[in-house]
Design a protein that fits this description.
This protein has helices at about 50-70, 70-90, 90-100, 105-125, 130, 165-180, 195-205, 220-225, 240-250, 275-285, 305-320, 340-355, 390, 405-415, 430-440, 470-475, and strands at about 10-15, 15-20, 20-25, 30-35, 40-45, 135, 145-150, 155-160, 180-185, 210-215, 235, 255-260, 265-270, 300-305, 360, 380, 400-405, 420-425, 445, 465, 480-490. It has about 500 residues and is an alpha/beta fold. Bound molecules: nicotinamide-adenine-dinucleotide. Nicotinamide-adenine-dinucleotide binds near residues 161, 238 and 246.
């Protein structure tokens, strides 16, 4: 990389990295990059022009035959090396995430661990004999044999948002490379510095030129990428509104799609729940990453019998959340990613209150918050079923609490959304937990745990939350085509 990212002067990040070479754009479009905790501009991200987008896709297309033909064990070694280099660069990657996104140290560190673990997991999967071995199919005709096998789908366009930049990127790049695909990545223009670092790490690991390429910019760059005829597969993470456009673009050439979209998830506190644990899970589920999570469990459902006790303990916990720049280890919540995102969240909150929702209590900002894009956590009690805060994804530190009387009512309230990403249930009753697991409309259900994510466990939602699954073996298969052969046995 040609740019020193930690200099105090404004830096300018290149618009594209194609076959290992960085390129600057002659167009004037560029996005300012900020330090979310101070509000200060730290640099610029140039946007790729049409020629660069085309060149990046062509580079990936040229690199495809050789990469697809490498032995899975060779791909495993490279993925393992990337995981090791991420670990070795932990300090710099963590510092950059803290600077750009304002993530507290433990959250920034967790992102680095998650990215490294994802590359490591897919390295290991590449070495398992069953991952790539053809499977025999029993047929009712012994004059022929049947076989199913998986082949890399081709060139993949990977488009990611700004809330967990390095993590979402690793979730896409690692399985794509493991499967034998070459890729063009488009990071979010607001948090691209970590992806530039990751690109440097992948080059250092020895990935052949053209296997991973980067184009930078906003939705217009993403749209051109998805429309390119040499793209075979699109893996997109972002809002449901953008996901619909991506799916429409993909339809032109029947490109394969994986869509990881929005959510409006529930956390259910049964009457038998351990209330201290429920409060801890509610705080983490609604306010981790300053609530900027597709998986935010911002609709909290609490049984009537424990409602008052829960709300009292929740209020104490929310008021104790330290919202501050990511300097000390005690900081629990950082800023939102940008002034625009904070404005968006505050506008939605005002709309909800205007429509009758009442704020039960809020947290507070530390004096050190200054000009950063901070917002204190807010808890709304008993909003109406059609209140915007109950129905719309807020993507910020705003949680709603509603009471219920029966499990059936809790399940109906939780499922009363067109999204279906995740859910959390807090209960001491294993039978109830089993019922909730099957009846909640969600891709992943946590029972009495925080939002644990492992590369071994798939991620993805139902309904408006998206199509397909990332992580796990299914995540790798999503970058492969399932194929069959029937062979004369004589
Ligand atoms: P966004 O949809 O605005 O942008 C996401 C990415 O898509 C960005 O890189 C953007 O430049 C690009 N993009 C925008 N329009 C495009 C188009 N027409 N074609 C191609 N690319 C386009 O979303 P955001 O504001 O960056 O992120 C927040 C959203 O992401 C939330 O809705 C959140 O729920 C969702 N999200 C989902 C998951 C998940 O795993 N389900 C994870 C993280 C975030």
């Amino acid at each position: 990389m040609t740019t020193h990212l930690t200099e105090s002067t404004l830096f300018t990040l290149p618009s594209a990295t194609i076959s290992g070479q960085t390129h600057h754009s002659s167009t004037t479009t560029k996005t300012p990059l900020h330090n979310a905790s101070t509000g200060a501009q730290i640099g610029w991200q140039e946007h790729a022009n049409s020629d660069q987008i085309d060149a990046a896709v062509r580079a990936a297309h040229t690199a495809l035959p050789a990469w697809r033909a490498t032995a899975p064990t060779t791909r495993a070694k490279l993925l393992k090396k990337i995981a090791e280099l991420i670990e070795a660069d932990r300090e710099r990657l963590t510092a950059m995430q803290m600077q750009v996104s304002g993530k507290p140290p433990f959250e920034a560190n967790l992102d680095v661990s998650d990215a490294a673990a994802t590359f490591d997991y897919y390295a290991n999967l590449c070495t398992e004999a069953t991952t790539f071995a053809p499977e025999q199919i029993k047929l009712p005709d012994d004059t022929v044999t049947g076989e199913r096998y998986y082949e890399a789908v081709g060139v993949a366009a990977l488009i990611v948002p700004w809330n967990f930049p390095m993590v979402t990127t690793a979730w896409k790049i690692a399985p794509a490379l493991a499967a034998g695909c070459t890729v063009v990545l488009k990071p979010s223009e607001f948090t691209s510095p970590v992806e530039h670092m990751l690109a440097g790490i992948m080059a250092e690991a020895g990935l052949p030129d053209g296997v991973v390429n980067l184009v930078n910019g906003g939705g217009e760059v993403g749209a051109q990428l998805t429309a390119h005829p040499l793209i075979d597969k699109i893996s997109f993470t972002g809002s449901t509104a953008s996901g619909k456009k991506v799916m429409q673009a993909a339809a032109q050439d029947m490109k394969r799609v994986t869509l990881e979209l929005g959510g409006k998830s529930a956390l259910i506190v049964r009457a038998d729940a351990d209330i201290d644990r429920a409060v801890t899970l509610a705080v983490g589920g609604a306010f981790a990453n300053a609530g900027q999570m597709c998986s935010a469990t911002a609709r909290i459902l609490v049984h009537d019998d424990v409602y008052r006790k829960f709300m009292a303990a929740f209020e104490t916990a929310v008021r104790a959340v330290v919202v501050a720049p990511p300097a000390g280890d005690d900081v629990a919540m950082g800023p939102l990613v940008s002034a625009a995102q904070r404005d968006r969240v505050q506008t939605l909150l005002a709309q909800g209150v205007e429509a009758g929702a009442s704020v039960a209590f809020s947290g507070r900002l530390d004096a050190a918050c200054g000009e950063g894009f901070f917002m204190a956590p807010v808890v709304v009690a008993e909003p109406a079923a059609d209140n915007v805060l109950w129905t719309e994804e807020v993507f910020g530190p705003v949680a709603c609490v509603k009471s219920f009387r029966t499990d059936e009512e809790a399940i109906a309230l939780a499922n009363d959304t067109r999204y279906g990403l995740v859910a959390t249930v807090v209960t001491a009753d294993p039978d109830a937990a089993r019922r909730f697991k099957t009846q909640l409309r969600a891709g992943l259900v946590w029972i009495n745990t925080p939002q644990l994510i492992f590369p071994q466990v798939c991620w993805g939602g139902l309904g408006l939350s998206g199509i397909g699954r990332e992580l796990g073996l299914a995540g790798l298969r999503s970058y492969q085509e399932l194929r069959h052969a029937i062979t004369d046995a004589s």
